[in-house]
């Protein structure tokens, strides 16, 4: 597969995902109203912070190791181990938010479950990208985004446009999408203690993800507690979602180039001119 085809497929998938996200943002803002929409985005922000733990750095590690393994022994099991990690962290989060006296416990639980499913799809995306199947990965991303969005639209049409049904639709949609995953992506769950060296790599990747997410999301949390109300959070969230969509459109180039350069590291003569 040429770099041009990889770039094109990845860019189209990213642009499509960004467009769907922006359209849903405006639709939810219109249906929910500024105040409830602000609360929705605030809850999503909290859940996305927990989603970093659900990911645990595995998404990036899977991509890196399948491309060119540093930890040869676990290369073929890494996706299965990441699924086991995701399940344990998701269950812990569900129990935690059910026990602790939060105002919106049920919504946070639904958000954590939905992020757990989304995280699972990203593990498979990393696997496909690591194996150089960028077109297949792009189709997979379009599939998950389409089914997830359609499921949400069906739920709010049949029932009502509330946060509960939006999150419920997301859970059902991504559950269905996982049944349509590429054949190469197997769902096997391993609960395995890893070598300390691997945990060091995961910790480094986790710190980077935390710093990145805080950079993008901390303003919503600050507005919620320091601003004039949830309406302000809602308006700000709609604007920031557009900015995020524009930023994410550029990520495919970094992804494809990273794999191309990493596969050349063992051959300096190929890497240097590149």
From TrEMBL:
One of its GO terms (cellular component) is membrane. InterPro entries: Polysacc_synth (IPR002797), PolySynth_Transporter (IPR052556). It is found in: Membrane. The chain crosses the membrane at residues 12-33, 39-58, 78-100, 106-128, 165-185, 197-218, 238-258. Pfam families: Polysacc_synt. Keywords: Membrane, Transmembrane, Transmembrane helix. It is a multi-pass membrane protein. This is Polysaccharide biosynthesis protein C-terminal domain-containing protein. It comes from marine metagenome.
